[in-house]
């Protein structure tokens, strides 16, 4: 696959994306958006890929939006007329995080350095964020005269709580990795030289002995249903998913591998064996 702004590799069962504009501190632009969307589509389409890791090349993860366009920096160039009916430009960061939100594979971030603006907010749609001790974060939107992007008004309060989300978003302050870890913005804090090995180990732990179809369903159930007003919808969907999975080849294999005290060998595939109930909650923007 050919990309302009990212490096994409497949290692064993993992896909690894390096944001790759190191001379620009991996600043986010429209080309990077397109590359990431294309890569996410590929990850979802390949049954051999079990999880995705996103990291940065060089000393930064992503320094935010590329400001080289000056006053036109925040004018969207993304043609989303085929996907969205609204008569306004969609925020590019939000287009990315919504696509991450819909991903059927676990997403992990290995934050290797500065993560500013969209460099911080794009991480919020990942399942697990691993941070180097040299990383720093900032949500500087108010300091630039704009407002939070990438659906972070939905994601960030869920991760760190409303009070801390507002504090960081009002001030735009630079947040040390230790503070980010303390308040749950990152799940793991490791030395720089341990970052990728730790993140890969986590990705393997998530996927090694679990059904890919069950993981995909679990990911979507957790992300979409945890915001329901009551548990009733979750119970309805849980029940239908469990009924569908209960008669699957994977369920039989899960039971037999346990009884026979061996590693499971799940055969169901995301490309062909997702139950008919999914997707149960289509976005009104699709």
Q: What structural keywords apply?
A:
286 residues, alpha/beta, 2-enoyl-CoA Hydratase, Chain A, domain 1, Lyase 2-enoyl-coa Hydratase, Chain  A, domain 2, four-stranded mixed β-sheet, 11 helices, 39% helix, 15% strand
In short:
The protein has 286 residues and is of the alpha/beta class. The protein has eleven helices and ten strands.
How would you describe this structure to a colleague?
With about 290 residues, the chain is α/β, with parallel strands linked by helices. The chain has 2 domains: about 200 residues, 2-enoyl-CoA Hydratase, Chain A, domain 1 (Alpha-Beta Complex), CATH 3.90.226.10; about 60 residues, Orthogonal Bundle (Lyase 2-enoyl-coa Hydratase, Chain  A, domain 2). Helices cover about 40% and strands about 15% of the residues. It has a 6-stranded mixed sheet with strand order 1-2-3-5-7-10, sandwiched between helices. A hairpin with a 2-residue loop joins β1 and β2. The two termini are about 25 Å apart.
């Amino acid at each position: 696959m050919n990309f302009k702004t990212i490096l994409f590799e497949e290692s064993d069962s993992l896909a690894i994306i390096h944001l790759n504009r190191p001379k620009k501190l991996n600043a986010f632009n429209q080309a990077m958006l397109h590359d990431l969307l294309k890569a996410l589509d590929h990850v979802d389409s390949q049954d051999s890929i079990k999880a995705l890791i996103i990291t940065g090349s060089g000393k930064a993860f992503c320094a935010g939006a590329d400001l080289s366009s000056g006053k036109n920096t925040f004018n969207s160039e993304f043609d989303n007329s085929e996907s969205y009916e609204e008569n306004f430009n969609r925020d590019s960061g939000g287009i990315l995080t919504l696509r991450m939100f819909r991903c059927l594979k676990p997403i992990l971030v290995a934050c290797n350095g500065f993560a500013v603006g969209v460099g911080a907010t794009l991480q919020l749609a990942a399942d697990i964020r691993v941070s180097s001790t040299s990383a720093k974060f900032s949500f500087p939107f108010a300091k630039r005269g704009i407002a939070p992007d990438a659906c972070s008004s939905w994601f960030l309060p869920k991760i760190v709580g409303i009070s801390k989300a507002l504090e960081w978003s009002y001030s735009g302050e630079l947040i040390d990795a230790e503070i980010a870890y303390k308040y749950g913005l990152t799940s793991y804090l490791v030395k720089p030289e341990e970052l990728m090995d730790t993140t890969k180990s986590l990705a393997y732990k998530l996927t090694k002995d679990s059904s890919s179809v069950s993981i995909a369903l679990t990911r979507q159930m957790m992300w979409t249903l945890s915001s329901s007003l009551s548990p009733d919808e979750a119970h309805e969907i849980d029940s239908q998913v469990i009924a569908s999975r209960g008669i699957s080849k994977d369920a039989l294999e899960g039971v037999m591998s346990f009884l026979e005290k061996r590693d499971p060998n799940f055969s169901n595939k995301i490309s062909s064996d997702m139950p008919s109930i999914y997707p149960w909650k289509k976005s009104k923007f699709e």
